[in-house]
Write the structure tokens for this entry.
Amino acid sequence: MTGIIVLIVAGALFVPQYGLFWRIRRRRWLHSRQAVEDALAHLHQFQHDGRPASVESLSNTLGTSTKHTLVLVNRMAQLDLVVMTGQGMRLTAAGHRWALQIVRAHRLFERYLADETSVPREEIHARAHRLEHTVTEAQVDKMDADMGHPAFDPQGDPIPNAAGDMKEIESQKLVDWPAGVPALIVHIEDEPPEVYAQIIAEDLHPGMVITIVDMSPVRVVIGTPDAEHVLAPVVAANVSVREAPIEGVEPAGVPLTTLEHGEAGRVVGLSPACQGLTRRRFQDLGLTPGARVERVMQSAFSDPTAYRVRNTMIALRREQSDLIRIERAPRKEQEIDA
Amino acid sequence: MTGNEIVSETSTKTTAGEDILGRVEEMQRGLDGSYRDEIVEAIYQDAEAITRKVVRTSETASYPWDQKLDRIVTSRIWGLPFMALLLGVVFWITISGANVPSSLLAEGLFWLGARGVELFEWLGMPWWVTGFIWHGVYRGLAWVIAVMLPPMAIFFPIFTILEDLGYLPRVAFNVDALFKKAGAHGKQALTMSMGLGCNAAGVVACRVIDSPRERLIAILTNNFMPCNGRWPTLIILATLFVAAAFPPAFAAMAAAGSLVLIVLIGAATTLLVSAVLSRSFLRGEASSFTLELPPYRRPSILRVLYTSLIDRTIFVLWRAVVMAVPAGGVIWLLSNIHAGGQSLTVWVSQWLEPVGRAIGLDGVILLAYIIAIPANEIVVPTIIMAYTGAGMMIELDTMAELQHLLVNQQGWTLLTAVCLMLFSLLHNPCSTTMWTVYRETKSVKWTVVSGLMPLAIAFLLLFIVAQTAYWVMGLAGW
């Protein structure tokens, strides 16, 4: 008897969708800032891409039923954030402004997480998504200023400034790019995550210069200065490129790791994959173009390796020294330097 | 000027200001990311030009000495053994050097205590005032000073010399590969060596790690390096149960060797816990690692003495004294307040007995660790006090007396010693360290984790060790 009562009570509380627990959660969610902001971000994205947003597209993105999405949309209409038009929902001026703030917070957080922390690349989007709902406009302004008003997020999406303006750059899908012509990666789409994970696995970053080596309906082979990467066309479609500037953005030369024991070289530049904290540290240490680097010592476990830069010995791990591009000094110069 | 004019003046100023801000904004938009690089490059170019003009370097700008030394201390074959040997030598000097001054200090301070008691009796103070002040507070204080001051006054200067010499960054360089595998930062090795002196100092030292994730890992695991306060316990156990098995000439060396082993176990635990943390709650890749290896320098004696004695020894000792005074009082109160014919000490330790037994210890030891949360230095004196029922920290003149008390009367075995050493190594940090963790992380959550995580690990490991030992002993019919 008691068992049955417990079962009924538990059912009333926890049956998926209809249980009291889920109802309360949903109700709280519908009234939360996150629900409104996620909806705004979705509408903004669609409007930006020139696609009509509808209640269906919204409930797909939010993962809620049509009924609850309608409740949410009505609430947003009351708050004067959206209006219904013949072409579906549109953001009002206030809605648009708010939406830009969320986009701004999201992309700034992504920039911050990528540059200053060691959060794995595939987790950055999800973390930024959680954090974007927790800050005020003033806090976002401060973050923007502290980070020096970055113009792009790590995927190459423009970050709006306080007034809502952003730098748009023209680009083409990698799959439409002619083979053999050097191209600069300007944007990498981070959704869906499964596709993004494959791009991360190939270690492609905005700012890299690549060339299409071979393209067929089943695979795209691209070349970077150090390696060749094979992508499925559906993956390559998420990479956008434009014409590479005459001076390659990717510094030429070879990675510092290729230096043999006792050899010396000169720094050509830092890889575009090297941003934020790491880049600043390198610059503080004097790893600027033209600086002489000599490999002097290897640790007991063969990694890290110590280099002499500007009369200081600095130990770097393999991953870091891969980011520093150098030019091997010719034999003659090495003798003079020594 | 009339009011209106002022208003119009300010308003034009504001528009001018806004104009400028607007232009700044516009220009900022026109910049691409590389302008920062250009600024840094320009600064370096200027600096180079100036140095070329004003700095003259000798023709032979080579580093023969440094390179030779580096070849040994970072060698693939010799690097790590050299490190362990150095650690052993430092411990050996500390243990054998601290023996005599420690017993002299103890003698002197306890003699002074006895005179204090006489003075109070002559003044006609009630027995509980005399007891609380001289047998409680004063003896706690005396024990901490006698036990801690000599080893610290030896260890910290040696450590500071190694630091000044530039050897510590080489240690970080040698072992970084291990930390990288654990998802942590090689500089954690520096903060760990600091922790050998004092965990609170080690936690503060974690500031040298730039990345917040790796810094937090270093903070949370610093406790697995036995600090100065825990050494007395470890040294006494090493002397009683390990060194006793060796001829007297090698006793100090054997004790130092077992301490090195304990530190290595601590280091292994640190790496293991770091690896688990960076794959669970603190997920992330190893981030930026740059480590400067400064040239070797001759340590300046005055600076070494100042840093090690004033900044470290006195600082750590003062903190221990501040913590030991109330702890000494608490011990005295617990032992002298009786209920139902037994002192509170007996009640609590009886209640803790089953838990203690399950992990190879006993109730008295656990009670001592609870009282010693503010300062681990007083663990051994508290245990002795509870065992003898003296109601105060008594003075045991020789190791032989201590051995008689622990082994013959209280039935301590090698298992008790091993378990107690492991517990001392792994258990929760002292309250000062936890307070420092809070100050460094500004997070109640991580402070609680830093306290409970080591405690849970200690209980789990000891439970496994003790139960396995009981089981094996049962099989062998002991």
